[in-house]
Design a protein that fits this description.
Beta-Lactamase, 39% helix, 155 residues, six-stranded antiparallel beta sheet, globular
Length: 155
């Protein structure tokens, strides 16, 4: 009986982890959609200012919106304002992936989608796998990513 209960707890925790990860992706996509609506109703400049506001409407800790122009210049970022104004299209992640170039190309060709890469998590200060949803809104690409912690996978 104890073994059955322990097995059910493990299965429940594993299912919760999977569902939480899926919900995080949904939350990231929803936050981008909210930012897109904000751009449409409040205007680009006001939206970029709000996106860049730490702990603002579009900054939920590890879940935050950031924005690029169509050339890969960072337009807004609530966690790292030093990036704003920099063209980052040719700056790779630690594995050499030009993920920003992929984000720009995906936004231009498909309008929206997901891109995977490694990035320094500003909350944990560790480099982690991240998947980012991007959506083109006029001449701006709005993004929000989910950090994927694999440190407990396989436990």
């Amino acid at each position: 009986m104890k073994r059955t209960i322990a097995s059910l707890i493990v299965i429940g925790l594993a299912l919760f982890a999977v569902l939480s990860r899926a919900a995080d992706r949904d939350d990231a996509k929803a936050l981008v959609k909210q930012a897109a609506a904000y751009v449409k109703y409040q205007g680009k400049e006001k939206a970029l200012a709000e996106i860049s506001t730490p702990k603002g409407t579009f900054d939920k800790g590890e879940l935050y919106v950031f924005a690029y122009d169509l050339q890969g210049v960072m337009l807004a970022h609530p966690k790292n304002p030093a990036l704003i104004g920099q063209n980052l299209i040719n700056v790779p992640d630690s594995e050499g992936k030009l993920f920003r170039k992929e984000i720009v190309e995906k936004a231009k060709s498909q309008g929206s989608g997901w891109v995977d890469y490694l990035y320094l998590n500003p909350e944990t200060h560790r480099e982690e796998h991240k998947t980012t949803y991007c959506q083109k809104v006029n001449d701006t690409i709005l993004c929000c990513g989910v950090y994927k912690d694999y440190s407990h996978d396989g436990d």
